Structures are given as structure tokens and as C-alpha cells.
Amino acid sequence: MTQQESIPSEPKALQEATDAYAGLIEIYPDNEDYLRHYAELCLASDKQATALEVLQRLHGILKEKSPKEARDLASRYPQLGQVCASLHQEHNDGHLFPSLCKAFGKLWITLHQRKLREGETLYQQGQSGDTLSLILKGELAVFIENKNGNKTLLNLIQEHDIVGEACFLNPGVRAASIVANCKTTIVELPRQKLLSWLIKKPDIQALLEETANFRHMLRVISNNNTLKSIPMNLRQYMAQAANFLHYPEKSLIYQAGANFDGISLIVMGEAYYTMKTKQGKNIKLESIPCGSLIGDASAIRHATSPANLVTRNKLTIAHIPIQVFTTVVAAHPPLKEALTNHANEQRARIMQTIGRHLQHTQ
Predict the structure, then answer these.
(1) What is the pLDDT of residues 26-54, one digit of tens each?
(2) Matching fold, domains 11-86 and 96-223
């Protein structure tokens, strides 16, 4: 029996088969045949988000066992291939680490290694610092802790990478803590020698600054209450494509009914939605404080600006292109529900404000 023939054509039978395989993969979550067939059933039922989630799980299993089978799976399903092709790791492509190793020499690095136990802190949030380190082996977790003691994971940095670049470029207080996720070996580079070497290597200096900018964007994204629950590789993907935009106070960002060209995360400042009445009076509908997302509903449905969006003061946003954010929503289905709820709640608040204003003017 072919795979096409094994998919029921009758809606009731299709639903029963889909429910049955949903139960099977709960019991056998790593069974490749069950995952593959459940994905086919979901696609036949037009459950695209669930199908993509299942295909990603299957892709992860195959990638460990047989990279060729994983590539074949991504080729067979275009939606999976699009996501896999879009998700990149950090963008320095490994050029920064080997260049720094070469500059200091294998012998010097071997003699100055430092071994960290699992859970041991390399840098402490709030501590002064100005040095940069190489990760020779292991993995480091970057996180911040708020005044209530709650921790937020900002980044995971693997071996053959660097850490501490922000305070090396701009000496001061560490903005985050960095802790060994497992047994890790690092080497801290002497600042003056590294500065002297970088003067002769402007391309490496530029790459170091680019890495610092990327990680700053990643920290901003990881700090957002909605986006922090997204897997790290997806946050890294957004950070690579995002850029900072700046607006002066009292400037118009979007007109009512305008299409959003991306998703905006307010990093500094505040904005608000406003509308003009028939009498020519402007009324404020909704304040958009620092840390809020703007335009996120456009990634789940055709949504336009519900009203004029105006800056209250100087505003800085992290702007994520719409096609990038849409890919992230497809790759992480739980995000769609969160964005839908956020959009519905905001629209309800705006409509309530409009309703109250109409009552007062009658």
C-alpha cells in the first residue's frame, strides 16, 4: 500500500486516524514511522503548524543518526526545508576564534588555560571587567538576574567561540553573568597585547564589533516576555536579521491602516496609538511602553495598524523583518497562540476606549 493510499479520504476517517497517531507519538515520541505518518495526516487535515512541529522533531532525530536522511526529509517537505535553511548559528563563521588563537600561539594558550567546573561562574553580573576569553572546550550560559532573583537565559555560547566582547570593547560593568554549562576550558586574553594586535587587524576588529552588536540584539530579544520562550536558535536567527531604528519624539511611525513591514520591539522610550475624531480632536487609545511588541499580529494574519502610532519621546526599536518573524512563528507553533491572544487583547482595549469616547460625545 502506498503512502498516498494510507491516508483516509473521508473526513471522519481522517480525523480518527489523526487522533490515533497523535496518541501513538505521545507513547512513542521518537518513533520515526509514527512521526512521519502523523505529519502526513496533519498535512492532509490542513494542520500545517502541527505538521511542521512534528517534521522538525523527526528532522532532529534523523540529523543525529543520518544527516543524509535529514537532508532528504527537508527536501521532500518545502515548509521544513525553508525553516532549516533559515536557521543559522552565530555569524562569525569561526573566523574570529582561529585568528585569535593564531595571534597568541598554541603554546601560550596551553600554558594559560583555566578549567571551569559545571555551574562555576566566569563573569558575574554587576562586576567590573575589560577582558575577553576564548572557549576552548565546553559551553557557557549567559543570563541576567532581576531584583527578585528570577533568571533569564540570554545566550548559549559554544566551544571555539569568544565571550566577554562587550566589556572588552567598552570597559565597565558586566551586564550579565556567564556560567559554565558543563566542564569548560577557557583562556583569558591579556588586554593590552590583544589591543595592540587588533590595531594591525582592522578586519578582525570589525568582526569583533559585529559579534558584540549581534549579541546585544540577542539580549534584547531574549529579555522580552513573549520572545524569551522561543528556542535559542530561533532567537539567534531573529537577532541576525534585526536592526535598531531610532525615532524622534512626537513622530508618526505607522498611519492607521498601514501594513507593518516588520515586528518592532521597543527598546527605549514609549509610543501610543491615537485617532482623530470627526471634530478634529486627537484622542489617545493605547499606550505602548518599553518592552512591548508592535505589529506582531501581522505574522499570523493580515493585520494593519489599528490606529496612528506616534512616539511619546525619543524611541529606539529592534526591528525584525516580517518574513523572518513569520518563519519563526512557523518553526515554533506555540508562539502563534501567544501572539493571537496579545493581538485580540490589544484590539479589545482599543475598541473599549473608542466606545467610551463615543458615549461621552453623544
Answers:
(1) 899 889 999 999 999 999 988 877 888 88
(2) no
Domain parsing of the chain, residue ranges: 11-86, 96-223, 236-361
Burial classification of residue 297, based on how many CB atoms lie within 10 Å of its CB (0-12 exposed, 13-18 middle, 19 or more buried):
buried
Burial of 337 (0-12, 13-18, 19+ CB in 10 A): exposed
Q: Are 171 and 212 in contact (CB under 8 A)?
A: no
Beta bridge partners of 72: none
d(C-alpha 157, C-alpha 133), whole Å: 12
Q: Which three cell numbers stand for residue 148?
A: 527578585
Q: Give every CB contact of residue 306 below 8 A, 6+ residues apart in sequence.
A: 256, 273, 285, 346, 347, 350
Which stretches within 134-183 are classed as H helix? 165-169
Considering only the top CATH level, what class is 236-361?
mainly beta
Architecture of domain 11-86: Alpha Horseshoe (1.25)
pLDDT value at residue 4: 44
pTM: predicted TM-score of the whole model, two decimal places? 0.74
Instruction: Determine whether domain 96-223 maps to CATH 2.40.128.630.
Output: no
